[in-house]
UniProtKB/TrEMBL annotation:
Segments traversing the membrane: 12-32
Keyword annotations: Membrane, Mitochondrion, Mitochondrion inner membrane, Transmembrane, Transmembrane helix, Transport
Record Pfam families: MPC
Descriptive protein name: Mitochondrial pyruvate carrier
PANTHER family, per the entry: UPF0041 BRAIN PROTEIN 44-RELATED
Taxon lineage: Eukaryota, Filasterea, Capsaspora
Tree of life domain: Eukaryota
InterPro entries, per the entry: MPC
Family: Belongs to the mitochondrial pyruvate carrier (MPC) (TC 2.A.105) family.
General function of this protein: Mediates the uptake of pyruvate into mitochondria.
GO BP: any one term: pyruvate import into mitochondria
Length: 110
């Protein structure tokens, strides 16, 4: 019975690790999206979350380098997104972003 329980826990841990990698994958996939769509509050929360779990992944016994790598990737992705949002927020916001171009009525020359 104990072996079956250990197998179940390892399987759940594997699914959890895979799901955890989806956070930085999603952030890197949206690197070229319009920066006006970035939620700075959520992005900041994810950056802080990754900082805590980077530390935790090394503090547990045995240390978990795969989890550490996942959170390093997520930290890099979230900080990149925050930098993009900050650059956008500090700009005059009149530049042609993809969302602004799509929302603007087309001007036709006669």
């Amino acid at each position: 019975m104990a072996a079956k329980s250990a197998s179940y826990i390892k399987g759940v841990g594997m699914v959890g690790a895979f799901a955890n990698w989806m956070i930085p994958v999603a952030a890197f996939a949206s690197i070229t999206d319009d920066p006006s769509r970035i939620n700075p509050g959520m992005t900041s929360a994810l950056a802080v979350y990754s900082l805590f779990f980077m530390r935790w992944s090394l503090a547990i016994s045995p240390p978990n380098p795969a989890l550490f790598a996942c959170h390093v990737a997520n930290e890099a992705a979230q900080l990149t997104q925050l930098f993009r949002y900050g650059k956008y927020a500090m700009s005059d916001k009149t530049e042609a972003t993809p969302a602004a171009v799509a929302a603007a009525p087309s001007e036709q020359k006669k």
